[in-house]
Amino acid sequence: MKKHYVGSEIGQLRSVMLHRPNLSLKRLTPSNCQELLFDDVLSVERAGEEHDVFSNLLRQQGVEVLLLGDLLTETLDITEAREWLLNTQISDYRLGPSFARDVRAWLAERSFRELANYLTGGLTYGEIPEVIKSISVETHDANDFIMKPLPNHLFTRDTSCWIYNGTSINPMAKQARRRETNNIRAIYRWHPAFADGAFIKYFGNEEINYDHATLEGGDVLVLGRGTVLIGMSERTTPQGVEFLVDSLFKHQQATRVIAVELPKHRSCMHLDTVMTHIDIDTFSVYPEVVRSDVQCWTLTPDGHGGIKRVSEKGLVYAIEQALGLDQVKLITTGGDAFEAEREQWNDANNVLTIRPGVVVGYERNTWTNEKYDKAGITVLPIPGDELGRGRGGARCMSCPLERDGI
C-alpha cells in the first residue's frame, strides 16, 4: 500500500486529489449561487476545460492525480459504503421516513457513476420516478432539490487536510458544504486506496454535531519540521483549532502549532487566500491582511496532556523560529493598491507549490506572477477565467495526499 504522508507545503508533491466540476456547476443559477457560496455562475464547459489543463499540468510534472468523482464511484461499488452514504445523505430526518426510504431504494438501483453524480451534483424532484409519492413531492416543483448540489467539492483542499501521518476530516462551517464531508469520509473508510487505515484520523470522523468546532483545510498550512500553521478565519474557529491541535500533539505528529487570527470576511475566507508557502524561506502574502500587528500564538504540548499557549510578537518571527530560518522573505501581491486587491480576489496568493520554488497559479494574475518571476519563483500558469469565479485558486482546488517533507 502507498503511504499517505504530507510533510510540508513545498516538498515534492507526489499525489493529489482534485474534483472536476460537473453537474453541480450546471445547477448553479443566479438565484441559488449565493446560497451555495458562489459569487457568480460559471460557464460549465469552460470551467471543465480549465480544470483539465490544471490536472494535465500536474501529471506532466510527475504528480499522481486522483479525481474525487472516480474515487466516489469506486467507493460506491462496496455495498457497506453505498448503504452508509445513502442512509447518511438521504436520511429519514432529511426527507421523512417513507419518502427517504423510496428515494434511497431508487438511487440504490442507479449505476455507481450515476449515483456518484447525484451525490455531488444534487437531485431534483423532477428526476425521481412518478411512482414515488409523498407530501413532499406534492408540495415541491420539479426543479426543487431533494439533495442540493455540492459545487464547492471543487475545492478539495477544505473538506479534508493531510497533516504528516494523518488526516483531519473537517466539520465544515457552512450548511452548503457539510454533506461534502460524508463523501470524503466514505472514500477514506472504504476505498481500496485508503481502506488499510494506515493513517491517523485526527478529527471530524465521528457522527456527531460539531456545533461551533468547525475547521476547513484552506486554513491549515503544514510548514514542515513538526510545525503546522492554522488560520482562525470566517470558517475555522478557535474551538476547531483546539480539537485538531490536541489530536496532533496526542499522536505526536506535530511539536508546535502557530495559530493566527484573520479578519472574518469573504475576501480572505481562508488563510491560503492571503498566504501560501512557496519556497523554503519564501511566502506569498497579501499585505493588507497579513500585517505585522496580526495576533498570533505558538501552541506546544505542556507535558501534562494539555496545550501551552504563548502570544507571539509577530507571525513572521514565529515562522522563523519554528523553521529555524534567519529571515523569511515575503512576496506581496503585485501592482498598485487597486490591482493588488483585484489580483488577491482572483487568488494571486493562492498558489500550489509542486516543489520548492515551482508553483501553479492563474495566468490572469500578471502583476503578482511577474513579482514571483523576479524573485526566482517559477510560475506554471493555468487559465482561470471561469474557475476563478468560485473564489479559489490552485491550492484551494487540490488536496495533497502525498508530499515530501523539508
UniProtKB/TrEMBL annotation:
Keywords: Arginine metabolism, Cytoplasm, Hydrolase. It is found in: Cytoplasm. Its main location: cytoplasm. Pfam families: ADI (PF02274). The keyword Hydrolase applies. GO terms for cellular component: cytoplasm. Gene3D superfamilies: Arginine deiminase, L-arginine/glycine Amidinotransferase, Chain A. GO terms for biological process: L-arginine deiminase pathway. The active site is at residue 396. Its EC number is 3.5.3.6. It catalyses: L-arginine + H2O = L-citrulline + NH4(+). InterPro entries: Arg_deiminase (IPR003876). Pathway: Amino-acid degradation; L-arginine degradation via ADI pathway; carbamoyl phosphate from L-arginine: step 1/2. One of its GO terms (molecular function) is arginine deiminase activity. Belongs to the arginine deiminase family. PANTHER family: ARGININE DEIMINASE. NCBIfam families: arcA (TIGR01078), PRK01388.1 (NF002381). This is Arginine deiminase. It comes from Izhakiella australiensis.
